[in-house]
Amino acid sequence: MINISKIFKQDASGSPRLILPLLPLRDIVVFPHMVVPLFVGRAKSVNALADAMNRDKCVFLATQNKPGIDNPRERDINRVGTIGNVLQLLRLPDNTVKSLVEGKSRGRIISFKTEEQFFQVEVEPIIEQSVIEVESDALVRAVLDEFKEYAKVNKNISKELINTISAIVNPSQLCDTIASHFGFKIPDKQKLLEMPVLTNRLALLIKLIRNEVEIFSVGQKIKGRVRSQIEKSQKNYYLSEQMRAIKKELGTDEIGNDEIKELQKKIKRKKMPKEVVAKVKYEFEKLKMMAPMSSEATVVRNYIDWLISMPWYDQVKLNHNLDKAEKILNEDHYGLEKPKERILEFLAVQILVKKIRGPILCFVGPPGVGKTSLAKSVARATGRKFVRISLGGVRDEAEIRGHRRTYIGAMPGKIIQSIKKVSVNNPVFCLDEVDKMSTDFRGDPSSALLEVLDPEQNSAFNDHYLDVDVDLSDILFITTANMLQDIPLPLQDRMEIIRIPGYTEYEKFEIAKNFIIPKQIKSNGLEQTKLYFSKKAIMSIIQHYTREAGVRNLEREIATICRKVAREIIQKSTDTPENPTLENPVNLTYADEEFENDVEHQHDVIKIPSTSLIKYLGQPRFRIGQIEKEDMVGLVTGLAWTQVGGEILNIETVIIPGKGDLIITGKLGDVMKESAQAAVSYVRSRSKRLKIDPVFYQKYDIHVHVPEGAIPKDGPSAGIAICTSIVSVLTRRPVDRNIAMTGEITLRGRVLPIGGLRDKILAAHRGGITKIIIPKENENDLKEIPSSISKLLEIVTVEHMDEVLTDAIILRSSEDRLFDENETGDYGFILEHTVIPQIDEHLVPLPENITTH
Ligand code: ADP
């Protein structure tokens, strides 16, 4: 071994200098006291080692400041390095060299001498500066503590190393040994090498070791977490493999698999919007992970089934031929000219714009007038499929829009259910009874409907269950309602109202003859039979067995007859061996004339005269409102409008001794009660002109009664009738029984217009009335009355109550006068007189006991 101190030369200043070959190191710092193996491949480095071997084996080991440089220059080499000895040199066949070097002492490059073959440098040794022992001892102890701490967390530090290090007494050697064994960063190691003052070096070492402990324990933590994650996924894998094996044993795996495969095929085949495809795929992946028999899997499978069974793009081809559409509409329904015309206009616009535009059609009218069947007919006329839901009684928004999937047993709403059922996305969708929805704490169904019906919004209808947008814009929505005022206003706003009023008896007869009877004959299997209804029989069913604005009950009664006839035929055919069916079926189903005999069964001909109705339908159920047989005091024929159409109303009044109470009986609406009160006040205010005892109200109770009381009669339209009835009683003059009247009065006797005139006039005509008094302001409505009826009636229009009384009250003789012409009608005259006037002699005295008629 060479003694380095011997080979140092003295320079002029006396400090030792050494000319040494330089071995540049890439990624290692060699500390004094350390023996390290080096693999040397670069030519210059090999040359440097060879030079050292030729001389005194002494070499200067300095680290490059950039490890990546292959051919370092002066600037790339740190100035401070280690003077070392080459202990061993072994040339390998590929011209590289394996060597063992030992660090001796720190040195600094003063200058570079040559650099062609290898670097030769002039080096001066760095002399360690002396330090205060106590300080260095304390630091050494701290270094050792830190080191032990590190050894505790890093199990890779061997016991031998710990022992070796603990045994070192020289603090500088200790520092270098630890530094070289730790995986510090190269710049940190270089810093440790470059520090001449030991205490500083020890302090830096402590910091670096502590840092290392920190990094190591964080690393351990991360490793631990990663390991537990890996372990968990391995566990899952293992368990699911086991589950599969168990399922295979149980034979349930196959079922699940088949179903999954089948579902996958379905999903692939179905054309769906992008958003839906993404949703289906997501749910399908979830389903695959689930046990096939679990309840969660059923929920997910149901949901996927719903999504793939919706008709996203399925449509039927539409009929764009308007003539054909018109023909179909006429084929299906009698009359209804206005609605049909409006429907055809609506369809024409759609054909032109190729899209459903404009408001939703809403058919409003009494039950059984053909609203729903007209919607069905629109479907047939346009070639669309038909689907219908009833909104009657719907009070929960979820019924329209579905429940969220989080609820157990959740389902889509009625809209989506119906679309799935009809399996195309362009049907006619009939929403029946929009006026019968109600609102409560479960939300407002009409607001959900708004979204459905609004063409601006319904291209992206979101059902809570499906949770994807559904395009409803190709659906032709039609709504129906009985009462316009019961439809929520925002909904009305989106609709075009088409009114379908009640039918006249004549219209009902035509409908029965041409539509209902042929239909019922067909649906009761009587096509092969000659079944005739006489005209009188049909009329009798209309008048005595039904009371309605539409024809639903009429249809029901005719169906009953057909059913009974069918039974008779079958029973007869089992009695006689001969089959009674005809070879040539005949469509004629009614005869104008009445049949002479009772029900006639002649072989295969069955005739139904009006007399046979009792046999088939039982006793007549209704007595149509008929005029009375004679004119009576206090009995007036009023006209009311109900949900089933117009009706004749007999209003009776009597006066009885009492204290002036107004008694009103019969099933009357509130408005009608107020009408009666107004009528009494009017009569009181006009008592002088009417020559009535002005204090009648103090002596008598007035009792107004409306006998035909099955249906609440609302609306103020009976005002003039009640008033006439009261005046008739108070003046003891009868009322013309041939007159019916409708109109409201004000306190001053003005007659105000009323609604439902058409139906009322139809009812009056039905009841045999010949003269009708109506408010003048209703004159315009007379256009709606079929001329076949209006020509049979005398219709009087009035503006004032006096005109009504003049027309309706029958005078006792030609000299008799109802009014005192000198009194011009001083309404409320009692107010002007502080003293109640004495009863004049010429006033008709009222009898004490009044008997009713
Ligand atoms: P709504 O919906 O108005 O209550 P529907 O549409 O159910 O009434 O009609 C009841 C029955 O009356 C149906 O069988 C229908 O075909 C028949 N009907 C109603 N009006 C007509 C008409 N104008 N022509 C032919 N049949 C009619």
Task: Write up this protein.
The protein contains 27 helices and 29 strands. It has 853 residues and is of the alpha/beta class. The protein has a seven-stranded mixed beta sheet. A five-stranded mixed β-barrel has the order 2-4-5-6-7. Strand 20 and strand 21 form a beta hairpin. Helix 3 (133-153) runs parallel beside helix 7, helix 18 (505-523) crosses helix 19 (535-545) and helix 24 (719-731) packs across helix 27. The termini are far apart. The model is unreliable at 577-588, 597-601 and 828-853 (pLDDT under 50). It binds adenosine-5'-diphosphate.
Number of helices: 27
Ends distance: 155 Å
User: Rounded to an integer, what's the Rg over CA atoms?
Assistant: 55 Å
Shape: elongated
Helix content: 40-55%
Mean pLDDT: 82
Strand percentage: 15-25%
Low-confidence stretches: 577-588, 597-601, 828-853
Bound molecules: adenosine-5'-diphosphate
Secondary structure layout plus pairing:
Layout: H1 4-7, E1 9-10, E2 16-25, E3 35-40, H2 43-54, E4 58-63, E5 80-91, E6 97-114, E7 120-125, H3 133-153, H4 159-167, H5 171-181, H6 186-194, H7 198-250, H8 252-269, H9 274-289, H10 295-309, H11 322-332, H12 337-353, E8 360-364, H13 371-382, E9 386-390, H14 397-401, H15 414-422, E10 428-432, H16 445-453, E11 461-462, E12 469-470, E13 476-481, H17 489-493, E14 495-499, H18 505-523, E15 530-534, H19 535-545, H20 552-575, E16 590-591, E17 600-602, E18 605-608, H21 613-617, E19 632-633, E20 635-642, E21 645-657, E22 662-665, H22 670-685, H23 696-699, E23 700-705, H24 719-731, E24 734-735, E25 739-741, E26 744-745, E27 751-752, H25 757-766, E28 771-775, H26 787-790, E29 794-798, H27 801-808
Parallel strand pairs: 2-4, 8-13, 8-14, 9-10, 10-13, 15-16, 15-18, 20-25, 22-23, 25-28, 28-29
Antiparallel strand pairs: 1-2, 2-7, 3-6, 4-5, 5-6, 6-7, 11-12, 17-18, 19-24, 20-21, 21-23, 26-27
The chain binds adenosine-5'-diphosphate.
